[in-house]
Every structure is written in structure tokens, then in C-alpha cells.
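Here we describe the complex-level prediction in full. Unlike the single-chain runs in Section 2.1, the two entities below were treated as one system.
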Amino acid sequence: MQQSKVPSANLLEDAHERQWLDNVHPSDWRNPVPAATYNLAVIGAGTAGLVAAHAAAALGAKVALIERSRLGGDCLNVGCVPSKAILRTSRLYAEMRNAEGYGAQVPAEIRVDFPAVMQRMRGIRARISLADSARRLSAAGVDVFFGEASFTGADVLTVDGAKLRFKKALIATGARPDTPSIPGLAEAGYLTNENVFDLTALPRRLLVIGGGPLGCELAQAFGRFGAQTIIAQNNPTFLPREERDAAQILSDAFARDGIDVRLNTTAVNVRVEDGQKLVDLVSAGYESTVAVDAILTGTGRIPIVTGLNLEAAGVDYDATTGIRVDDFLRTSNPRIYAAGDACLEHKFTHTADESARIVVQNALFLGRRRLSALTVPWCTYTDPEIAHVGLYVWEARERDIPVKTFTIPMHDVDRAIADGEEAGFVKIHVKERTDRILGATIVARHAGEMINEITLAMVAGIGLRTLARVIHAYPTQAEAIKKAADAYSRTRLTPAIRSLLRRWLAW
Amino acid sequence: MIDTSHADDDVLLDRLQRAAFGYFVEAVNPANGLVADTSRENSPASIAVIGFALAVYPVAVERGWMARAAAVERILLTLRFFRDSDQSGSPEATGTRGFYYHFLDIHTGARVWRSELSLIDTALLIAGALTAGMYFNAQTADEIELRELVDALYRRMDWHWAQDGGTTISHGWKPECGFLHYDWEGYSEAILLYVLALGSPTFPIEGDGYHTWTATYQWENLYGHDFLYAGPLFVHQFSHAWIDFRGIQDRFMREKRCDYFDNSRRAVLVQREYARRNPLGFAGYGENSWGLTACDGPSHAVPELSNERRPLFGYAARGVPYGPDDGTLAGWAPLASLPFAPELALGAVRNMARLYPEMLSEGRYASSFNPTLAGTGGRAWVSAGHFGLDQGIVTMMIENYRSQLIWRLMRDCPYIVAGLRRAGFRGGWL
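The structure predicted for the assembly as a whole is:
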């Protein structure tokens, strides 16, 4: 087993680590005596499970929440929270090195204190874990059980020998890293998101396999900490889902950070010699070997569906795509629903959150909310960030929707110039000859913040005409969105309208 | 030294065009007709550059720079080489299934640099051959053989194989790993590729690959201009060197009420706007100094630039507005947009040549120059030697501007006409 689930002894001496563990899995926890029947039994206390448990309990439902490891799931423990914490520090180091670009002095010595980076991360994680601690959940009326859940019938499951009956259940077991099957990788040892945040020393040389969001974020962060970083991606661009220009800008950013970018490259073999990992890479017929001290894989995630005895409950699933659900998130057993990474294509914390809210309404209150009605943004937190919502151009064209894109490069935005953060763009896609927003991609230092305005507009049915009337505080980087709306307004000035205006103004 | 400041337009263009054509006289291997990729020492031949050579021999004949018989002899030599070349697809062959490796040993014609069997570069080669075939239309034994060779080379190209079981055309193939696993995405020079692939009477592509590819287009409003987006300028020039896109439209352009010719004019306007804004603050950029495209460029690999702190991209497809941009401009790029925006292109040509005459040697454009990396005496960094692609596109585009010779020839090419129609083009001269 390559991935350590238990923090190492020296980590346990850390106060933050102890506080975090006390919140997410208290060592002295005793499972409650089960109620006769639960309105909702939730398996998995990641984002989806916690949101559903809180929401259902707040509405008066009798809720059981079952977790086999730590409350908070990937997001809190080994995902969004710790990664964003270290990304922030890595950005600071990058800015220190680029201080001259801001008219400031580069510090005489820039020494990366990696243990301090990780300690800050642990402090942040411990603080955020307090919100969903076992004790707070219990105080909120949720029966929290630690242990392995297993269905024994259509309306019953067991946890550590205790039988829990339910009217409705939610499977929110999440996903785990999908490790590439490269000969020698397991023997050589590797990192995933599940153990990379346990590192106490910075690897001197790091190979990141996979150019998806996690791989890109951590490659940049470790590169900025000073690790000689290579990123190998088995595709012509990073973030294959995203626009080519976004991937291009990211490639350029990686080059500036000194990361060795290997696109169209596959890792085919790993071996250990003299304490270092030698990885054979193949790119369009060319073979090369790199020597590194650590390998991080970020090649995707697969749903956790085993060990639940889903057959006993009559719940259909697929080992790759997860629990099968309909548009109302109901499984093949009408009593049982699923939410989050265990069943969704878009494995994000915010989709897990929203899908859990849908389940609470649909399962407990006769709701008819549909998954397909959601407008889901997402963001990769590299520097610059890459955020998207709605349709891509190719998706719109595939559906025969004529599409036009209003593009504002960030170098046209005053605040971005002042901030020295000009890499990127706002692209808003509209249905041709209308102002209806189909989707948008934003590449900018704060794209994740900016995309929310577009998401709001899409959900509220606001078009570019209205956005052009929305005053944006000046100077802000979000003004790029207003500029795109203004560009749309200018296209409405057809030659005929211009001619009319000229005549009108001829007084 | 060409006087670019006082000569009138016709004289200036004639000098620049003749100098560009001169590359093909100097860089050819007279034994087999193969043409070097660049004028640098030990350069291999490039099949794309040979395509440009085949397309510009008619220009040279028309302008009196080359005797018709000499041009025919040179072209026959070239075409016979490809007819007789090793088509086994082995790692040292010249090609397979009618396609050729990108770079060839200029003496033996064997593959070099482990280069890929290149679909787009073979398309440029065969487009040049078709141009020659259309021009040399006399009923002499040599010219009849020339046309037969062109036809045979085109007909043996197995475009269907190049789809690799899918709908779109692959970028390339290598004996070591098979088809390269990435496809054309977004607007690019691949229109010519698709037109040739659709026009084939023997092995045309099947399915709706052209539509699948054009579905990845992005129609953008950028800097106030609506246009079919592609960053590097050459994308807006290469297919257009052969195909007269004025007034003809495919489904996409009908929807946008535009055509690819007009779109290339808009691309010039976008380049000017980017250079005027000059977001990265490079020296020498301005609305009359632009040309971000695929070209050579400075690199940290050379000792004198190894300590340069700025990113340098070497040979790269530079583009606007997202780069890559390291301050490198291609002086020839505005000239290659001459037919689309003559007044703007000439304005840039004159201005850039006045400010940076060092980018022209023997009256011929270097691949690129970079004023930000000025050396001693304030002279811009200049790419060494000359690149065949640049000289080819310059010769062709000046000719299309002056006489429309290439366009006229290709408008009558039945394969091009069939390919355009199958791609959904209608209207105008079609």
C-alpha cells in the first residue's frame, strides 16, 4: 500500500494535526445507539454527506451519518483546502522572486521553509474542520457513526455490527485517486492527493504524471517551492477539457516557473536505482529517462462503490462511472439516492454540495429537482486560474447553436495592468445575434472569483445587454466582464443604426 | 540592399519577390529537385518547402526569371524523385501511402530527424505540384509527363487511411508509434488539407470530417473586430496562398456572413491592434510593426542568450493575443498578408524595413527579428540565414497581389474545385 492513511508520528506531535484529528475523527468517539428508523441514512461524510446531514437535520429529520475514516472527505482533508493553502504560499514565493516586476526589491535570500508551509496548511485545515466536527454534528442532532457501512437489505444497513433502518438513504462515498498502471510504479512508491499533504520535506526532483487540475496545481506549487519539477501529460495540452488558449497560457506560465513541460508524453516504466526513481517516458516515438526523488500522480479519480454490498440493496453501479442515478439522483432502489463524486461526472466540491441539497429535497420532501438543470462552474487554481461555466464553443456548435464569443484580454483591463496580472482573458459565449449567455471561460489571477458573476447571470437569465448596464466598481479585474458586455453593445450599432444616429445628432 | 523607402510599390514588390524566389534557386539540390528547409548548413529538405518551390516556378517563368524549359526540367526532376521514392513506410524511407516524411535527407531523400509522416506538409507539397500541373499545360512530351506525374502523385495519396478510423484527419504518423494521437482543433491552415482530401478521386476522406473540424472554430469579437480566431498570422495565409477565398463560403462562413479572405484582412487588423497595445512592452512593436507567426526565434540554447531572464521560445507558432510572444516579429509576415490588406501590409513592410534593415540580407527576409534583444550598435537580434517557407509564401502572396496567377491556376484545378464543393463551399467564382 503506497498511500498512508495515518499521519506519521512526528506529524501527530503537531498541535494542528491533533486538533484536526480530534475534529474529524475523535479517538474517544463512541457510536450512538441507533434510532428505530432514520428518515435519512447518509453513507460518507464528505462534502455531499455533510451538507445532506446538516440540511436534513435542520429541517427536523432523524439523520444517521456514517463515516469510515475522517469527516470532511477529500475536500477538507486531502483536496481543496490543503492544496489551496499551499498554493497561496507558493504564489508568495513566486512574487518574491518577481519582486522587481512590482518595483520592489528581491529579498537577498529566498529560502523556502517547506515544513513551515505544511504547518500553515495544517493550521488552516484544523480551523476549517471545526465547522463540521463530530461533536458539532452530534449537537446539531445528527447521529454520527464511525465504521464501515454495508447494506443488508433494501432499507437496512449495518455499521460495526449495529443495524440501521432507514426510510431513505444517501450514498455519498466519494472517489479515490485513479492510479495509472505503470510497471514498477507501485514498487517505487508514489504520491497522490491522499498522501502528498503528509510530506514533511520537499522532494528535490519531482515528476508529476497527469496534466489535469490536481497535477497542474501541485506541479506549479512544488516548482515554485524549488523542486525541479517535470510534468508529463499524455495529451497535446494541459487540462484537455479546457480551451486551447487557456492551456497555452498555462503552458507559458509553467515555462516562466521553470517547470519542465512534457506534453504528448507517456510514462511507461519506473524503476529504482541508487535511491532515485528512474522513469521512462515516450513521446511520439522518442524515448527518454528522467531521474526523480518523488512521483505524483494526478490522472483522475474513480468512484468508491466497493465494500458497501450494494447488491443487497438493489443499487446498480459501474466500477468506472459509479452509482447509477437518474436525473433526480435516485438509484435503482427508489429509497436510496446518491450524490457527489460517487455518482457525478463533474467531481467538484460545489457539485457535491448542490447534489446533496437536491437529494434532501427529492428524498424527504417530494421534490422534483433535476441534476441536469444545474449550471455548474469550475476552476483550476493554477496561476493564472482557469475557470469555466456552461457550454464550450464546440459543445454549442455540436448542438447546432450558432455561437459568438466576446473576448477581453486581461491586458485590456486597467486593474489587471496595475496588479501586474495581465495573463489571461474573459471569453463569454453567446448565441449568435442574441445576448443570451451560453457559457464562459475566464483565465485570470482571480478567475474563480470572476466566474461567479457569469454563473449568476446564467442562472438568473441575465444577458449581456443587462450586464452592460451593471456598474462595476472601478478599478476591478471583474470589469473585464463589463467590457465584454460593452463589446456586445457596440455590435448592436449596425451601419443603419449609426446612420440614423448621425441624422439625429445633426442639430 | 533593397531600397524600401523610396522605391514605388511595384518596384519594391518586384525586388522583394525576386529575392525571395532566389532562395529556391540557391537551396535546391539540382540532382533531385529537393529543396533545403533553411539556408543553414546541413539543413535537410522540407517537403513543404518543396511544395512552395513547385508553386513558384510558374511565377518565375511568368516574370522571366527562369526559362520555361528549365523550370519544367527542375519540376520533372522533383516529381520523378517522389514517384520513385521509397514508399515502404520504414523508418528510413521517404514516405508511405502517398504521403511523405516532413524532413528528408537532401541527397538521398531518406527520412531524417525521426520526423513524422506529415499530412499538412504533404498537402503543401501536392498543392505546389498541382499548381505546376495547371500552369505547364503545353502539349509537349515534358509537360505532358509533368502533368501525369502530378496526377499520379495526388491520386496515390490515401486520405482515407489518414483518418485512422475516425472522421477527422490525423496530424501525422510515425513508424515508431503509428498515428500521432492529436487532431486539428480550431481554425488552422488545415483548410487546404481538407480540400485536397475531399477532392481526391481515389481515396477521399469519408464521413463529415470537415464539419467535425470546423465545429471547433471560434468566432470571436476581439479588439472590436469579429473574426474567425487563430493566433498565428500564417494560419490566415497558407491555404489562401493557393485558394482564392474571395466570395466563396462554406457553411460556417455563410452563418457568419463573412469569407476566409475577408477574415484574413480582419486578422491583420487584430495583429495591428495587438502590436499597438504591446502588452508585454517589447521594443519595436506598433501598428505599423507587427507579424506574430510561426517563425524562428531567439532561444536560451545559444550561448549569447543563455543568461537572458525573459522566456524565449525558439522556433514557435507565435500568435496574438495570447502568445507565445517573446518580442520576436517576422518581417515577411505582413508581406504574406498583402492581398488581404495591401495598404496596411505595405505600410508595415516599409516601416519595419526602415527601422530594422538588418532583417533583410540579399534583399531576402530572415525568418524573424527581435528588437528587444538588441545587440551591439542597437541592431535587433536577427534569425540566421533564410527559411524556405517564408520565401515561398512571400513569393506566392506578392504574385497573388500583383497578378492573381496562383489563384487563377487553382480556380481551374478540378480537384480543388471538387474539394471545395464537397466541403460545402458555394458562391463567387465557384
